[in-house]
Amino acid sequence: MRVILILLVAFSYTTLTAQKTFKLTEGETSPNATLEQVAWVAGHWKGEAFGGVAEEIWSEPLGESMMFVFRLVNDGKVSFYESGHIKQVGETIIMQLKHFDGSLKGWEEKDQTVDFKLVKIGEDKVFFEGLTMEKISETKMNAYVLIESEGKKEEVLFEYHKKKS
User: Fold this and answer.
1) Within a domain: residue 21?
2) Contact indicator for 120, 130 with CB cutoff of 8 Å
3) What is the helix, strand, coil percentage profile of the chain, to 5?
4) Residue 2, in any domain of the structure
5) Whole-number Å distance between alpha carbons of 93 and 46
6) Residue 141's CB: how many other CB atoms inside 10 A?
7) What is the CATH number of the domain that holds 72?
8) Per-residue pLDDT at 18
9) How many domains does the chain have?
């Protein structure tokens, strides 16, 4: 009985702390994918992250892209925005975005974007480098983002619920 309990605790800890974001290995290319495979992301999503309210609005696929906007609100004020898309590029997809502060001053240089190459795609999950989106149900989605700061890496969970139209 004691062995079973130890195994259950070890399994639970491993499951709860399992890495959710991944990276392509050197020389590896993104797999084939289409926007239709990630169309389930479309909608208005809201949740909590970084001590505030996180909100994302995603469009349906159109013009070889799915556009989105994001905002984080802390203490009743916008901390930052993101604007971007998932774009069809040949036989695969890529996620690209730009950050803006609460006054819409850009963080990245004018012609620079933050790019997330596709690592793997499943029926209800899409793995970009450092960012994973997972459909839990028709009204719930989790996003895991690998945040690097001061030499430390941390996966941050965004638990989103779909707002009704």
Assistant:
1) no
2) no
3) 15, 55, 30
4) no
5) 24
6) 23
7) 2.40.128.20
8) 82
9) 1
Confidence bin at 51 (pLDDT 50/70/90): very high
Q: What is the pLDDT of residue 149?
A: 85
Q: Is residue 67 part of a domain?
A: yes
Q: How many CB atoms are closer than 10 A to CB 142?
A: 16
Query: Greater confidence, 1 or 146?
Result: 146
Enclosing domain of residue 154:
27-162
Place of tokens 């999503």: 45
Q: pLDDT tens, 55-107?
A: 999 999 999 999 999 999 999 999 999 999 999 999 999 999 999 999 999 99
Find the length of the chain: 165
Say which residue the tokens 């819409």 belong to: 104
Interatomic CA distance for residues 25 and 104, integer angstroms: 35
Supply 101's token pair. Answer: 């502060």
86 within domain boundaries? yes
Which of 38, 57, 59 has its CA nearest to residue 163?
A: 57
CA atoms within 13 A on the CB side of 11: 6
Helical residues (DSSP H) of the chain, grouped into ranges? 2-17
Per residue in 23-34, pLDDT (tens digit) is 888 989 999 999
